Each structure stands twice: as structure tokens, then as C-alpha cells.
């Protein structure tokens, strides 16, 4: 039982006892009751203020928690996107490396073929126009003949 209720009960018992004895108690009781009501009203007002502050703080916490969740979701999405981009970058880098190797082989082959072409152009310049029959008869095998035909026609 709250303290004020015990006090009110004690005042009531005292009033009844004194009232029976014939003493005037009502003005004293009215003063105490007003004081208790004023204290009760003051406490109720302070309690409502505190509840209001608690509710405001709860709203701020909920807002902060919502923002934190949104930030965590953004972070996870961005992390996944970064992993995807890194994976594509690695695949692209691998393809670049393969293309570099292919380019080096092709450049070596081009240098070799350019040397053969330069030799043939020099021979044509020195010996004059060469016919296909001369080219065919000068080749030791069919494979070299075929290679020679592809250079002279292309």
C-alpha cells in the first residue's frame, strides 16, 4: 500500500477517534488532504514528463537502429558488388594475359613471315618476275609449295 494511502487511513482513523471524542478535526484534515492532492498532482505531472522523455528516447533509439540497419544493408550490398567486380576484374585480367601471349606469338610469326616476304621480294627484284612453275620447281616438298602458294596469292 502506498505511503499516502497509509497516511490517509491513519488520518481517517484519527479523525474518527477525535470526532468521537468531540474535538474539531475537519480543518486539519482538509489541509492535509489538499497537501496530499497537491503532492499527488505534482508527482503525476513529473511522472508524465518522465514517460514523455522515455518515449522520445525510445523513438530516437528506434530511428538510430533503423538507420544502422539501413547502413548494414548498404554495406552488405556494396561488399557483394565489390566481390562481383573483383571477380570480373580477375577474369578480365586473365583474358588480357592470354591475349598478350597470343599477341606475342602472332608478332613473332609476323616477323618471320615478313622476313620470308622480304627475301622473296628481294629475289624477284634481283631475278626479275618469277612464274608459278619456277616457284613450284624450286620447292623441295609439297608443304613448302603450299606455304609458298598462300604467300604469293594472299
Give a description of the structure:
Helix 1 packs antiparallel against helix 2. This protein is mostly helical. The longest helix is centred in the middle third of the chain and has 102 residues, at about 25-125. The mean pLDDT is about 80. The chain starts with a helix and ends with a helix. It has helices at about 5-20, 25-125, 130-140, 140-154.
List keywords for this structure.
4 helices; mainly alpha; 154 residues
Compose a concise summary of this entry.
The chain is mainly alpha-helical and 154 residues long. The chain has helices spanning 3-21, 26-127, 132-138, 142-153.
How many helices? The count is: 4
Q: What is the β-strand count?
A: 0
Strand content: under 5%
Helix content: over 70%
Structural class: mainly alpha
How far the N terminus sits from the C terminus, by CA atoms, comes to 112 Å
Please provide the ordered H/E string of secondary-structure elements.
HHHH
Described by the principal axes of the CA atoms, the overall outline is rod-shaped
Estimate the mean pLDDT confidence.
Answer: 80
Low-pLDDT regions:
none
Q: Taking Cα atoms only, what radius of gyration do you get, to the nearest Å?
A: 53 Å
Main pleated-sheet profile:
none
Amino acid at each position: 500500500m502506498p505511503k499516502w494511502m497509509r497516511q490517509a487511513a491513519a488520518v481517517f482513523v484519527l479523525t474518527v477517534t477525535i470526532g468521537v471524542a468531540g474535538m474539531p478535526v475537519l480543518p486539519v484534515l482538509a489541509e492535509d488532504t489538499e497537501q496530499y492532492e497537491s503532492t499527488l498532482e505534482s508527482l503525476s505531472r513529473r511522472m508524465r514528463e518522465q514517460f514523455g522523455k522515455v518515449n522520445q528516447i525510445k523513438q530516437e533509439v528506434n530511428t538510430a537502429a533503423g538507420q544502422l540497419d539501413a547502413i548494414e544493408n548498404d554495406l552488405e550490398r556494396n561488399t557483394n558488388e565489390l566481390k562481383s567486380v573483383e571477380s570480373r576484374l580477375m577474369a578480365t585480367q586473365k583474358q588480357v594475359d592470354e591475349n598478350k601471349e597470343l599477341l606475342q606469338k602472332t608478332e613473332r610469326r609476323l616477323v618471320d613471315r615478313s622476313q620470308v616476304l622480304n627475301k622473296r621480294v628481294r629475289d624477284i627484284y634481283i631475278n626479275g618476275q618469277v612464274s608459278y612453275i619456277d616457284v613450284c620447281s624450286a620447292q623441295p616438298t609439297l608443304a613448302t609449295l603450299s606455304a609458298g602458294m598462300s604467300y604469293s596469292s594472299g
